[in-house]
Amino acid sequence: MTIGILRQFHAANCAGHNLDEKQPCDDSTPPTNMAAIYRYTQRLAHESPVIFWSLLLGFAGPVAVLTVPPIRRSFGYQSPAPIPTSFPTPSRPRHIVKGYEDLQ
Where is the sequence biased in composition, kind Pro residues (predicted)? Predict the structure, then answer.
């Protein structure tokens, strides 16, 4: 009876791991199904929130790079004109400026 309860507790804590093998379930063994991944991330959020949020923000960056531009275009956003890199020269002849000569 007690062994069955312990096995059920072990199965609940190590969901997704092969329980027939005599290897203990610990943090180094990767989860294999979605329920175990969710349970692991939930545990990580409670036990070490700094690592959890760092990973979450770290994965959000590349996802945003791939998803935000198409979403902006679907809402009608148009990119602004590029900033000029040089000053345009006038298409008229240059006039010599007078009145700013050095005094002698």
Answer: 81-91
Record the pTM.
0.43
Cβ contacts of 34-43, under 8 Å, gap ≥ 24: 39/15
37 vs 18: CA distance, rounded Å: 15
Residue identified by tokens 């275009």 is 73
What CA–CA distance (Å, rounded) separates 2 from 11? 14
Torsion, Cα of 20, 22, 24, 28 (10° steps): -80
Say what the pLDDT of residue 26 is: 58
Across the range 23-47, mean pLDDT stands at: 76
* CA–CA distance, 24 with 22 (Å, rounded to integer): 6
For residue 9, CA distances in Å to 2, 5, 20, 81, 104 come to 11, 6, 15, 62, 99
2's tokens: 């007690």
Q: Residue range 27-49: average pLDDT?
A: 80
